[in-house]
Amino acid sequence: MTHPPSAAIVGVGSTEFSKASGRSELRLALEACTLALADAGLDPSDVDGLVTMTMDDNDEPAVAHYLGLDALTFFARTAGGGGGGPGTLALASMAIATGRARTVICYRAMNERSQGRFGQPSRYAGDRAATAAAVTMSWAAPFGMVTPAAFFAPSFRRYMHEYGATSEDFGRQAVVQRAYANKNPQAFFHDRPLTLDDHQSSRMIADPLRLFDCCQESDGGVALVLTAPDHAKDLRQPPVAVLGAAMGVGPRQYGVAPLYRDDLAVAAETRVMGDQLWAQSGLGPGDMDLAILYDHFSPAVLMQLEALGFCGLGEAPGLVRDGGTEIDGVIPTNTNGGQLSEGYIHGFNGLAEAVRQLRGTAVNQVTGAAHAVVTGGSHAPTSGVVLGRTA
Amino acid sequence: MTKAPTAGRPRPAANPDTRFFWDAAFERRLAVQRCSACRALRHPPGPACPECHSLDWEVSDVSGRGTLYSYTVLHHPPAPGFDGPAVIAVVDLEEGVRMVSNVVGADPATLTIGEALEVCFEEYVGWTVPQFRRPAAREAVR
């Protein structure tokens, strides 16, 4: 059943993306929230809700305190690591639609390169207390499975086995995204082109993942302001409607990665989530003008194109080879350069890019963009949104 | 051969749902849970049967024979406690359960999805970890 838009995005704020911000994570969060409110033309006193991801280090009360909010009526977090980014918009939309809050800021800020690096082995020691998390990691860490690349690589290897995809197929999407980044002054890799040969000669990280298949480790913060559609239309920016907002876990998810399900060659959690997005919005893949697909690793982009129905299983390598994810392709994908080449703010920089596209202000603007789909990390508990231009 | 604990090969944490696995490995047995109600095998171990929801379970030794469902070789950053790149395997056991482990003694460049593997054990002081290797020659001929 199609739901009416429950909320709209009315403000976006972002810090720069860097390898060493030189500032506290809480400051990055406050900078992003303040910029987002200014973009919306709203005051902190208008805000009564805050939502972030479970891995964010900035407590909602701390953000509220330094924003100078009088009170919070709604605060919550989304699970699933990088899968949870768009899910923050799902929670905010539900809070707004049900009257729990009127205006909500979703934020994510981190010093993920200069402080807690996700790409380094998980801090884990089995001789500490047998917490549920430690027991879960005991089926991975003793075997060397200690980084996100190691957790997800067996799924990508199986995908290659099932459908004949190659490392070059993964590299082609990385090259497409780098070309977008080369036109994006905010991107890390703004001035560094990437060729397929560069990709193929980059060092192996976790076979089959090469260096240029992997997202950046980044410092930065991004925030989005959401409010009710009737309030949104009176504000400074053209509102971007949340037409669908969903979460998804597939069968036999255990721990970080779904290694125990029958078929690892399909992004099942993305399919569970995407089916809801299409049902809620009354739209389908053919209605999307662009896609922001979570690119912790380049093969995940291909597998999400398939799970969302942009092509059939095993067909994404051909779609990318034919230029389908480029600016004039059937589904321009990760037009900011993505997390491979713009920066990695746990998916939040992709949400900001979707808003820019639907306002018509992106650096790699898709002509007439009216609808966009944005996903959280695949191969983990995930989430996604369908966003729409309203003017 | 018993190795001293390496500089950082992570030791498993165990709780009442999972301790049997590591106890069995210490005795060089590979064991999984079997639901006492519907007899389904399961891994990783947990408190309940996903098939029938029973909380009752018992320990079932398995053959240790399986096939390589998928794998990765972790080059960078190095896995703590491994001398070189960790060859991490997703193994389908012939009894129908899946297990994450390592393949040892094989050139990772020659690994083939679907190839036969058998369990072996790496012993450390106080704990033992199940690993997989290509079957011994006599097994391959059989």
TrEMBL record, chain A:
GO molecular function annotations of the record: acyltransferase activity, transferring groups other than amino-acyl groups
InterPro entries listed in its UniProt record: Thiolase (IPR002155), Thiolase-like (IPR016039), Thiolase_C_2 (IPR055140)
Record's signal peptide: none
Domain Thiolase C-terminal: residue ranges: 261-377
Superkingdom in the source lineage: Bacteria
NCBIfam families attached to this UniProt entry: PRK07855.1
One Pfam family per UniProt: Thiolase_C_1
Family matches, as PANTHER family: ACETYL-COA C-ACETYLTRANSFERASE, NON-SPECIFIC LIPID-TRANSFER PROTEIN-LIKE 2
Organism, as annotated: Streptomyces capitiformicae
Protein name, as recorded: Lipid-transfer protein
TrEMBL record, chain B:
Stretches assigned to the ChsH2 C-terminal OB-fold domain: 61-122
InterPro entries: ChsH2_C (IPR002878), ChsH2_Znr (IPR022002), NA-bd_OB-fold (IPR012340), Thioester_dehydratase-like (IPR052513)
Domain ChsH2 rubredoxin-like zinc ribbon: start-end pairs: 22-58
Family matches, as Pfam families: OB_ChsH2_C, zf-ChsH2
Protein name: Uncharacterized protein
The species this protein was found in: Streptomyces capitiformicae
High-level lineage: Bacteria, Bacillati, Actinomycetota, Actinomycetes, Kitasatosporales
